[in-house]
């Protein structure tokens, strides 16, 4: 999916969304879309479960500098 979102066209030396590639590789395949939603839900659940641990851990994201 990310390849079709940031498709590099060597002929025009530009990056753009390639809808045809998206549809052929993912969009027309209901089973692949269901798998994508399942994985997304699993990751969201895992992050929610890890939330207390992540809040206790001291880490830098680089976004802290944007608040200044």
Strand % is: 5-15%
Helix segment tally:
3
In whole angstroms, the N-to-C terminal distance is 35 Å
User: What's the assembly state of these chains?
Assistant: single chain
Which term fits the overall shape? flat
- The structural domain count equals 1
What is the topology, as strand order, of the major beta sheet? Answer: 1-2
Question: Can you put this structure into words, describing what you see?
Answer:
The structure is a single chain. The protein is mainly alpha-helical. The chain has one domain. Helix content is 59%, strand content 9%. It has three helices and two strands, in the order αββαα. The chain has helices spanning 2-5, 19-27, 30-56; strands at residues 7-9, 14-16. Strands 1-2 form a two-stranded antiparallel sheet. The radius of gyration is 18 Å and the shape is flat. The model has no long low-confidence stretch (mean pLDDT 86).
How would the blueprint of this fold be written?
Elements: H1 2-5, E1 7-9, E2 14-16, H2 19-27, H3 30-56
Antiparallel strand pairs: 1-2
List its salient traits:
mainly alpha; two-stranded antiparallel sheet; 3 helices; 59% helix
Give a brief description.
This protein is mainly alpha-helical and 68 residues long. It contains three helices and two strands, in the order H-E-E-H-H.
């Amino acid at each position: 999916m990310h390849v079709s979102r940031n498709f590099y066209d060597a002929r025009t030396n530009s990056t753009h969304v390639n809808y045809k590639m998206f549809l052929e590789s993912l969009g027309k395949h209901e089973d692949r879309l269901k798998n994508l939603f399942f994985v997304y839900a699993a990751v969201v659940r895992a992050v929610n479960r890890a939330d207390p641990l992540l809040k206790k851990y001291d880490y830098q994201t680089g976004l802290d500098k944007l608040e200044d």
